[in-house]
Amino acid sequence: MMLDGPLPTAPEGNSVLVVMAHPDDAEFGCGGTIAKWAAAGKEINYVLCTSGDKGSSDVSVSTYKLAQTRRVEQVNAAHTLGARDVVFLSYEDGTLRNTLELRRDIVREIRRFKPDAVICQDPTQRF
What is the pLDDT of residues 5-21, one digit of tens each? Predict the structure, then answer.
């Protein structure tokens, strides 16, 4: 299928939901797009599957304290890009699996936010 003309620079509709596994995944993967769409008037909301409780090599920091820090950092980063809300599903970092429970929790947030577009990771791609 051939597309005529340039690709759209922003999704149709007003609402975008960003669904990612970990704090800072959105900023590393598509932060520029999020900021551009927010500046264009799109309502951006995040759903993060984990709180990043294993996202450090500093063994002196408890997973609870690390999760608190990562949550604050993530909310600040999302708001800096123009996002409105950040939801943490609070699954344990490092053990996230494609389970019925996880899918149910993500679907619940999609139904709550009713986005016109969703940005998410490809679960089959690994770095």
Answer: 665 677 889 999 999 99
- Report the distance separating Cα 86 and Cα 71, nearest Å: 9
Instruction: Determine the Cα–Cα distance for residues 26 and 77; give it in Å rounded to an integer.
Output: 10
Burial class (CB in 10 A: 0-12, 13-18, 19+), 93: buried
**Mean pLDDT lowest among 2-6, 30-34, 65-69, 77-81:** 2-6
Q: What is the pTM of this model?
A: 0.88
Closest of 9, 19, 15 to residue 105, by C-alpha: 19
Q: Is 47 helix (H, G, I), strand (E, B) or coil?
A: strand
Instruction: Return the axis-axis angle of helices 63-81 and 25-39, rounded to nearest 10°.
Output: 20
Rounded to 5 degrees, φ, ψ at 36 are -65, -45
Mapped onto helix, strand or coil, the DSSP state of residue 95 is coil
Q: What does the pLDDT read at residue 89?
A: 97
